[in-house]
Amino acid sequence: MKILYGVPGEGMGHATRSKVIITHLLENHDVRIVSSNRAFEFLNKQFPNRVYEIKGLNFVYKDGGIEKLKTLQSILKKSPHDLFENITTYKKIHKEFIPDIVITDFETSAYLYGKFLKVPIIDVDNIQVLSRCKLDIKIPSEEKFNYNLAKTICKYRVPDCNHYLLSTFFDSKIIKENTEFIPPILRNEIINAKTVYQNHILVYQTSSSQQNLTKILNEVENEKFLVYGFNIDEVKGNCILKKFSEDGFINDLATSNAVITNGGYSLISEAVYLKKPVCSFPIKNQFEQFMNAAYIEKLSYGKHLTEFNSKGISEFLDNLNIYRTSIICYTQKGNEDTFNKLDVLLSKYN
């Protein structure tokens, strides 16, 4: 089959998990990819001559949170130009590659192209849990607006796909048809990594706008923190800041005592797979991250921090043995279940 795969450009989680799925699909299918920003650069290196660059959305960050108004202003300012560029790109795709089916990881342009062609569309992502499942976590009043906004975006961004495969490390009740769960999509390097516990804590942040991170970590005594996200090599007290290296990062993750991160799904799910307790401080105004952090705490896999401070971090580190008792029970057979379910769906539409 000819498959067009849509991957958002914001963050790298969509790109790294899409690489896993696309590599599997290429064993039996002809695949082309549309993506933007850093995700395009990453996927273009992995799959040369198969990736088309499109214009995508970008969030504006400040003080570790999303600036909703400035993000909206940026989108509105760039939308006319970006729309023209994307139409031009899809005209080119239409001349070179007409897909039999579209797979989207919550990426809108490929979805719309699939609707235009009237071909089947499969959505593979983790975010649709918000609109297609009943969450069993407490949503505080200050998060209700973010929850309703995120739920609305999920409802209308890629609606009425033929099927939804929801990647998740937690269970919730599915309330819509043509929907099923798959476990987190893992890189082979994570599946093959050997879990050991050494004397460092892995720290990762998506946005380098949280400049007080190392100052707060320095207040936690008798710990060593390996920090990724600033993309510099530097030592600040008990923090060793590192430039990003995939091999180095995976090794530091697999050998860590625990993980401190925001609420990003990809790293949290990798940490859970490797049995690493997680301290999650979600990016403000991004409900999907709040949800992931809330489920980490609900499952006793770690701690959900509403404020990033040394007191909360110390409490998390004091209870690592309790979290390990719970997280050690998590099981997953690599990507076997995901590949099987996707192959069955594709055979249905072939």
Write a structural description.
This protein is of the alpha/beta class. It folds into 2 domains: 2-186 and 334-349, Rossmann fold; 188-327, Glycogen Phosphorylase B (Rossmann fold), CATH 3.40.50. Helix content is 44%, strand content 19%. The protein is built from 14 helices and 18 strands. Strands 3-2-1-6-7-9-11 form a 7-stranded parallel beta sheet, sandwiched between helices. A 7-stranded mixed beta sheet has the order 14-15-13-12-16-17-18, sandwiched between helices. Helix 4 links the parallel strand 6 and strand 7. Helix 1 (13-25) runs parallel beside helix 2 (37-46).
Provide the fold topology:
Blueprint: E1 2-7, H1 13-25, E2 30-35, H2 37-46, E3 51-53, E4 61-62, E5 65-66, H3 68-96, E6 101-104, H4 108-117, E7 121-125, H5 129-132, E8 133-134, H6 141-157, E9 163-167, E10 173-174, E11 179-182, H7 188-192, E12 200-204, H8 213-217, E13 224-228, E14 234-236, E15 239-242, H9 246-254, E16 258-261, H10 265-273, E17 278-280, H11 287-298, E18 302-304, H12 310-318, H13 320-327, H14 336-349
Parallel strand pairs: 1-2, 1-6, 2-3, 6-7, 7-9, 9-11, 12-13, 12-16, 13-15, 16-17, 17-18
Antiparallel strand pairs: 4-5, 8-10, 14-15
Q: Mean pLDDT, rounded to whole units?
A: 91
Strand content: 15-25%
Unreliable runs: none
CATH architecture of the largest domain: 3-Layer(aba) Sandwich
Termini separation (Å)? Answer: 7 Å
Number of domains: 2
Number of helical segments?
Answer: 14
Radius of gyration equals: 20 Å
Q: Please, what is the CATH homologous superfamily of the largest domain? A: Glycogen Phosphorylase B
CATH topology of the largest domain: Rossmann fold
Question: Helical content, roughly?
Answer: 40-55%
CATH class value of the largest domain: Alpha Beta
Structural class: alpha/beta
Strand order of the largest sheet: 3-2-1-6-7-9-11
Shape: globular
Number of separate strands: 18
For the largest beta-sheet, the strand count, sense and barrel status come to: 7 strands, parallel
